[in-house]
Design goal:
The protein has 139 residues and is of the alpha+beta class. It has a single domain (5-137), classed as 2-Layer Sandwich (Alpha-Beta Plaits). It is built from seven helices and four strands; from the N terminus they run E-H-H-E-H-H-E-H-H-E-H. Strands 2-3-1-4 form a four-stranded antiparallel sheet. It starts with a strand and ends in a 7-residue tail after the last helix. Bound molecules: guanosine-5'-diphosphate (GDP). Residues 59, 62-63, 93, 111-112, 114, 117, 120 line the site of guanosine-5'-diphosphate.
């Protein structure tokens, strides 16, 4: 059975552009409850650790620079079928391929600066939520 928790980050490009409020409104209107939320900034070490799974990919260093280039908003979200439904709400990695009305279609500017992160499995949602939040930072 699919889990009811996912993890997201509003990425530096979207925060910088002032789109956080609109994106959070879309997330809540899609039925996701915010269980934890934090404005923070990654650095080369923490961004590198978060994206360690991609370290052999050619875009890894660019991804680390981009993800540590400014503030992000990290959130744990709750909804039935959270991981899959959230991936549908945000759309494809490449905004050029994202469906109309998705968050990435609306706010992403490139395959790298794609506005928002969404966990790709229940297991990773747990790992990623634990990366940012202690048990005392969740409601
Ligand atoms: P996601 O699950 O949709 O976020 O996509 P991935 O896990 O495949 O990639 C992680 C992040 O790396 C993406 O959200 C992008 O910010 C970035 N990324 C993915 N593919 C590329 C690429 O081909 N080039 C660059 N520069 N960045 C990429």
């Amino acid at each position: 059975m699919a889990g009811n928790i996912t993890f997201t980050m509003i990425k530096p490009d979207a925060f910088r552009a002032g789109n956080s409020g609109t994106m959070i409104k879309m997330i809540q209107e899609a039925g996701f409850a915010i269980k934890a939320m934090k404005l923070t900034q990654l650095n080369a070490k923490t961004a590198g650790a978060f994206y360690a799974v991609h370290k052999e990919r050619p875009f890894y260093q660019d991804l680390i620079s981009y993800m540590s280039s400014g503030p992000i908003i990290a959130m744990i979200l709750e909804k039935a079928n959270a991981v899959e439904d959230f991936r549908k709400l945000i759309g494809a990695t490449d905004p050029a391929k994202a469906e109309e009305g998705t968050i990435r279609k609306l706010f992403a500017t490139s395959i790298e600066a794609n506005a928002i992160h969404g966990s790709d499995s229940d297991e990773n949602a747990g790992i990623e939520g634990d990366f940012f939040f202690s048990q005392f930072e969740r409601v």
